[in-house]
Amino acid sequence: MAFAYCQRLMAREVSMPDFILSRDIPFVLVASFLAAGTAWVMNGQILPAMGNRGIICLTPLAEEAAKTLWAVLLGAPILWTHAGFGVAEALVELRRRGARGVMAGWTALAAHSLFGFITVRLYSERGLFPALLLAYLTHAAWNLAVIYYSGRARTRLTGHK
Structural domain boundaries of the chain? Predict the structure, then answer.
């Protein structure tokens, strides 16, 4: 069923809903979990090898591709898969930082939801590749701003130490 929906979606015979239906929840949870796991593995390779450059250039690509492609493959709503990924990232922030991670967690949820909204809007108008490209560029710009304004740009320009 999910595969048939995915084929119809890719052919633009149906559009992504702006709301979530109860039957979509399992697909969103699985897609979000798989996207978070995929990103976790990929980012685990990127950060030690490239440091901030990887966070700016490759991490957004890995995350946006993982979120969107898992959603499309499973027939899950893209927007809600992105939001679910944001929840997973928020939980990681809380686990790592405790109370200091609350703001970072909320920001992760908001940012990934925004990237999802951008992806859905462009996907419905232009297709998968342009949607992924714009979401990637937006995410990369976001990561650049976060690194620059957090002061991390001066401390870790290359590899993660």
Answer: 23-155
